[in-house]
Sequence to fold (95 residues):
Amino acid sequence: MQTLITVAMIIFIILLLILAIYLLTHLSKDFLIFKPESTPRIRQMMLVTSVLLFIVAIGGLLILWLAPAKANLITLIAGSIVAAGFALILTNGND
Fold:
């Protein structure tokens, strides 16, 4: 069971990193229907979200190897909150 949790967490952390890299590489490209170059607020949100995702991923790796298996819940919750927060702000706060 421990191995299954470890593999699942590694996959989740990789997905967090992929999302962070995607957001960083699209700071000067079109992102979905938005143009970050012409909307500084969206560009800033993308940058902040990608930095937060990198922090969560690094913290997740540390938790994965240094803490008990139940502590991985911290990574799952933090990553989910950051991604959901970005989505909510993007959809609700776009004037």
Remarks:
- The mean pLDDT is 90.
- DSSP finds three helices and no strands in the chain.
- The first helix runs from residue 2 to 25.
- The chain has one domain: 2-92.
